[in-house]
Amino acid sequence: DLIATAELSSVVETGPVLVNRYAIFGSASGNVFAHDLDAGYAKWSYKLSGGIVVPPVSSQNNVFVADSKGIYAALSATDGELLFRGKTFGPITAPLASTRSGVYVPSHDRTLYAVNRITGRDNWVYRTADALTLPPAALGRSVFLPIEDTGLVALDAANGKERWTTDLKAQAVHANKNNILLHY
User: Fold this and answer.
1) Which end of the chain is more exposed for a tag (fewer CB within 10 A), N or C?
2) For 113, what's the count of Cα atoms within 13 Å in the CB-facing half-sphere?
3) 137 within 8 A of 173, measured Cβ to Cβ
4) Are 59 and 72 in contact (CB under 8 A)?
5) DSSP structure string for 96-165
């Protein structure tokens, strides 16, 4: 049964990330806002320079969002306070991945940025020959990076070094000690 509906303050193209009792959206106009699920209205908002075409991701009580101009930001999910901002050298149109230690930002500038979720500094970067248009998957101690014309690359999450590559055009869904479930 439908319990409630609410009008959002901005047009959105992707789903939200849920943090506590907030649904946090990124809008086509670059507005990031937290919709309070209990009260039914926007609690806070923050403006980025470009449209947001990928859903925000959470890490504990923070939210990370990226825009189509290559800007990414970490905000407090509670009040929208800016924790840090960064910039890539190309648009960000593939979803980010988040872990306890970092956020993985794929960019059209052919780089995967492993950003420290507390300091905002790069833990490491991984460069490719192709624009990154598919979402990375952070599973266990690896980051699996699908590259459209190349295949799948497994990177060490701690330092960004290649563990292995395959020419399979696939995305990692789940990993355990000895197996990886892929979707292709």
Assistant:
1) N
2) 26
3) yes
4) no
5) -EE-SSEEEEE-TTSEEEEEETTT--EEEEEE-SS---S--EEETTEEEEEETTTEEEEEETTT--EEEE
For the ranges 1-10, 19-28, 58-67, 88-97, the lowest mean pLDDT is seen at: 1-10
C-alpha closest to that of 160 among 183, 144, 182 = 144
**152 CB-near residues (< 8 Å, 6+ apart):** 144, 145, 146, 165, 166, 168, 169, 170, 171, 172, 182
* Main-chain dihedrals φ then ψ at residue 135, nearest 5 degrees: -75, 135
DSSP 41-61: EEEEEEE-SS---S--EEETT
What are the pLDDT digits (tens) for 102-113?
899 999 999 999
Rounded to whole angstroms, the Cα distance separating 68 from 105 reads 12
* Pair of tokens at residue 165: 């590559």
Report the SS3 class of residue 176: coil
Give per-residue pLDDT as tens, 41-51: 889 999 999 99
